[in-house]
């Protein structure tokens, strides 16, 4: 993991949706404020962050340089701000809309495996089988 990045985004490298989003974010990451870690990489250890692989596969997580771990829509707020999309981050932070974004994200997170399979993704993870997806 790069210690130079302000924030590390944990992503599911087996998920085609996630890979596309990360590729797009990498192109926008001109100031290298973000680092990217595939949670399915052999060297990745979820327990270092007090999480299980199942937890990390179930919802998006990221970690600040100081070790603070965040998840869900809060991750997108940080990530979009870091790549110069402050307007989008502001929309996600809007107190009136935040509950809506959280509900929408939870729905997406639950349906991501099926959507990923439609896009040709693998349904199995090194966390111990296919049921996690």
Overall description:
- By secondary structure, the chain is an alpha+beta fold.
- It has one domain.
- The chain contains five helices and four strands; from the N terminus they run βαβαββααα.
- It has helices at residues 16-28, 53-58, 73-82, 86-93, 98-118, and strands spanning 7-11, 34-38, 61-64, 69-71.
- A four-stranded mixed sheet has the order 2-1-3-4, covered by helices on one side.
- Helix 3 packs antiparallel against helix 4 (86-93).
- It is globular.
- This is DUF393 domain-containing protein.
- It holds the Pfam family DCC1-like.
- One of its GO terms (molecular function) is protein-disulfide reductase activity.
Task: Furnish the topology, listing elements before pairings.
Blueprint: E1 7-11, H1 16-28, E2 34-38, H2 53-58, E3 61-64, E4 69-71, H3 73-82, H4 86-93, H5 98-118
Parallel strand pairs: 1-2
Antiparallel strand pairs: 1-3, 3-4
Helix pairs in contact: 3-4
Descriptive key words:
133 residues, DUF393 domain-containing protein, four-stranded mixed sheet, protein-disulfide reductase activity, alpha+beta, 5 helices, 13% strand, DCC1_Trx
């Amino acid at each position: 993991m790069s210690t130079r990045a302000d924030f590390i985004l944990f992503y599911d490298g087996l998920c085609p949706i996630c890979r596309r989003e990360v590729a797009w974010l990498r192109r926008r990451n001109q100031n290298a404020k973000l680092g990217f870690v595939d949670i399915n990489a052999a060297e990745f250890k979820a327990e270092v962050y007090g999480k299980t692989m199942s937890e990390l596969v179930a919802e998006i997580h990221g970690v600040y340089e100081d070790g603070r771990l965040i998840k869900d829509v809060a991750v997108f707020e940080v990530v979009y701000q870091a790549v110069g999309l402050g307007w989008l981050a502001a929309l996600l932070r809007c107190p009136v809309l935040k509950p809506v974004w959280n509900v929408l994200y939870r729905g997406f997170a639950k349906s991501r495996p099926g959507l990923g399979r439609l896009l040709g993704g693998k349904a199995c993870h090194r966390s111990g089988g296919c049921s996690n997806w």
